[in-house]
User: What shape does this take?
Amino acid sequence: MGRKGSRYTLKEKFFYIGLVTDDGLSTMAVERLHGVKHSQVQQWIERYEADGVDGLKVRRTQRAYSQKLKLEVVQKYLAGNTSYPQLAKEYGIPNAAVIYQWVSLYTSGKLPQATRRATPMKDGRKTSQTERIEIAQWTIANDHNYIEAMKHFNVSYGQVYAWVKKFKQGGESALADRRGKAKEDNGQLSEVDRLKLENKRLQARLTYVSTEVAVLKKLQEIERRNAVQTTNTKQSNNSHKK
Assistant: This one.
């Protein structure tokens, strides 16, 4: 069973790094042979390559991160095509679990705050179940554009992200507010409300598709003009050569 990274001596870290860089073992092989997590060994290698010996020394003080940096990292993760370890490496954050905590705070409706700040900033607004369903459907209809949904409905990014996730997993009833005694009809909507929401969903999708088609037509027109211009230029150049 491996220990936590901070409990390994500098000499031990160099030993495990050497097994990979000098002896040609994989980090997985090191884990099987010595019980040190392969991700930990890989992290030591990356720190050593980036900062030398200083990158392997135990940090006695907690690094402070600005709210702006936290938001940037969180939104980059939520946009997709990356992972916690990749972001940790990109931003020089020693532990990828820190980013996981920021994302968890953000998607629960709380903005990540600067390090050591105790009171979380309140974000978003109160909504009804019908609103939450409409927002989730609108976001899905617009290819999961969370930022535009946030602006369009005046809610937080974290709220939109959480509602879409719940809606996709559990449908309409998953977005009912079950706190306290006042429950929203056990999550069941009336047929009229359901029809109104479906109409809004279809309108949102139609608007999005229409915009996409308009953009595509515009691009095709630009490409056609560029092709004509290129052809005319070539013909003009050929006529001058003659």
Summary: Confidence is low (pLDDT under 50) at residues 116-122, 181-185. The chain is about 65% helix and 0% strand. Residues 5-56 form one domain. The beta strands are 110-111, 121-122.
